[in-house]
Amino acid sequence: MTTPTTSPPQVPDDAHLLDLAREAAGRAYVPYSAFPVGAALLLANGEVVTGCNVENASYGLTICAERTAATRMIAASRGEAGENGTTRTDDRVVVKAAVVGLKASPCFPCGACRQVLHEFGCQSVVVEEDGHPRAYSFAQILPHGFGPADLPGQEA
Ligand code: THU
Predict the structure, then answer these.
(1) Which one from 66, 80, 83, 155 is the annotated catalytic residue?
(2) Could you tell me what percentage of the chain is helix, strand and coil, using 3-state DSSP and rounding each to the nearest 5?
(3) Is residue 7 in some structural domain?
(4) Residue 51 in this model has a pLDDT that exceeds 80
């Protein structure tokens, strides 16, 4: 009898993450801007959570792709939320975020989304430049960011 082999879980590379973001952009709800955006978040546990922008007739209620993805990550996390729901289990930590705009390349996260990604530990952002993945560190795109570590008694 042969021993079943288990291959280690594959961590998607940047090009694959961009593909997943592009696929998510295809599900965007964008009747007002016609500007579909997709995001794919690589989590610390190796899983990927995607999101797309979801617009509203009351324009200001629009949710960007990156924030949709971050919200899905927290809502779907299996980790037990600690007191005040803050526990940073590996299914609640973002390693990197890939972002694709179907009508614009590169498409960088807006300021609000940079702040939200920073909240969950995001280290870098991958965008598509001239058809190739290009990674930017968070220090580059959100220098001197304000985050959990800046509040007394909060974990980084
Ligand atoms: N948008 C995103 O989804 N993410 C960003 O970081 C930039 C902007 C969306 C919001 C809106 O639906 C459309 O792009 C045009 O601003």
Answers:
(1) 66
(2) 30, 25, 45
(3) no
(4) yes
Domain that holds residue 95: 14-141
Q: Does residue 136 belong to any structural domain of this protein?
A: yes
Q: 55 C-alpha to center of ligand 1: Å?
A: 9
Ligand 1 atom 4, closest CA: 64
Give nearest CA residue, ligand 1 atom 10. 64
What is the per-residue pLDDT for 1? Answer: 47
Give the Cα separation of 62 and 54 in Å (integer).
6
The domain that contains 78 carries what CATH number? 3.40.140.10
Structurally, the chain folds into a number of domains equal to 1
Query: pLDDT tens digits, residue range 63-107?
Result: 999 999 999 999 999 877 777 788 889 999 999 999 999 999 999
Q: Is 66 a catalytic residue?
A: yes
